[in-house]
Design a protein that fits this description.
DNA-binding, homodimer, alpha+beta
Chain lengths: ~240, ~240
DNA sequence: CTGAACACGTGAGGC
DNA sequence: TGCCTCACGTGTTCA
């Protein structure tokens, strides 16, 4: 195996690696990038020279690709705690765990977010399924003042949904309520369903507005969760 | 470059690759794993044979390492939507973006979670800093009935904290309140601070209990956010 | 045909 | 010593 001998001191299997010195007189080093070019003083290039320049460009490109990947791995390492001095594979497996646990966290956290706000709104949006990238899910919510009459309408709406996998939930807080539908396991044709649900929810909300018949319309001053920072000096904040 | 000729059809630079046939009579193929062993019928092994077996084991080990890494990359690809048919580097950069956005999501979601619950509790916990893996942060919360007298005690507590980077917030809901302190930028010695804060909060809560002087102690029946699933049949849920 | 992306085997170096 | 991880240059394939 002596034709594989390293004659420059660089690491790795640098079989035809020359550190900036080119053995053929018809080749020259490109100034901007460390790639090989034909020497302009020559007119023709031998096949051996062409092979050399191609090989050199190839190895340079491959090095750049490696650097790109390793840079991303380094970024992931800074983003993932406790992965310094860790194996490449170990780092990746740790990243996998982190992504999974982050998804569980955000799922748990958004689960607690079903608290009715003080503004009326209907939101229907498609969201990714954490466990299966191929299938998506729809999350539809309607937030408004609480009314018994709405419940039967909502039940009609949820019964009209395709029975893939439907979860429905209602939260109330004081006079406010929010109803959330989550339909999972959709494989395709999501957008029509999104539009349909949005229209249904909006008509329910409109019907609710009509039934209110302009009673106590302005300055409703709904109860509100108050949240404030400490005043920076003195403890006589206006809130308390 | 004809000494690099591929004489077996396998892909890649298999320089001394013989597909199961060993050119030296003193070597034999191990049955369980595709590694090279010494032929038991021989007594001694030449140095060339030893070099061959070492090389073969080395390349096999390297292949296993590659497979391990690529398996993790494949897992990440299934976990990250829209990364099929994507570059290795592109996949990693997408994973980075996903981790970052997931962290923002969970930060936003947990930010909305500062709604006082109906159980009294003090929680002090160390949590990771998303932007900097080297530094951690402490999140301390105290949840109880609202009392003006608590506020001065809380202000004392927040003033006593080391002024690294302190964020304090109070939320009230009806008769309930929750106070949250977040101290960021801690580099070390976190646990003593955690213990100190926990003790401070608990003493505040104890002081609050003492000031209540056993008034209206049992069956306090605090107001509660109601959250329920639809009953699976009939619309006469007891709730409504 | 050029360039990009991948798997491969190999040398270096760390325990 | 032996085993492991990493970077390197190379062969191959695909757009």
């Amino acid at each position: 195996m002596d034709f594989f001998e390293n004659f420059d001191g660089v690491q790795g299997g640098n079989y035809l690696g020359f550190q900036g010195v080119v053995p053929s007189s018809s080749l020259i080093l490109n100034n901007e990038r460390g790639e090989l070019m034909m020497n302009p003083s020559r007119q023709k290039m031998g096949d051996a020279d062409k092979a050399l320049i191609a090989l050199r460009n190839h190895s340079n490109a491959e090095r750049r690709r490696r650097e790109r990947i390793n840079a991303h791995l380094a970024t992931l390492r800074t983003l993932t705690p406790g992965t310094t001095k860790m194996d490449k594979a170990g780092l990746l497996s740790e990243v996998i765990n982190q992504v999974k646990s982050l998804r569980e966290n955000v799922a748990e956290a958004t689960k607690g977010t079903v608290v009715p706000s003080d503004i009326d709104e209907v939101r229907v949006e498609e969201e990714e399924d954490p466990n299966d990238a191929a299938s998506t899910s729809i999350r539809a919510s309607l937030c408004c003042d609480f009314k018994h009459e709405l419940l039967s309408d909502l039940r009609e709406a949820v019964d009209a949904l395709p029975h893939n996998d439907v979860r429905a939930e209602i939260s109330t807080l004081g006079t406010r309520m929010v109803s959330v539908f989550v339909i999972t396991g959709l494989k395709s044709q999501v957008q029509p369903l999104v539009d349909s649900i949005r229209q249904t929810f909006r008509s329910i909300l409109d019907k609710f507005y009509a039934s209110e018949e302009f009673s106590s319309r302005s300055s409703s001053s709904k109860r509100r969760r108050v949240s404030s920072l400490f005043a920076s000096s003195g403890s006589s904040s206006g809130l308390f």
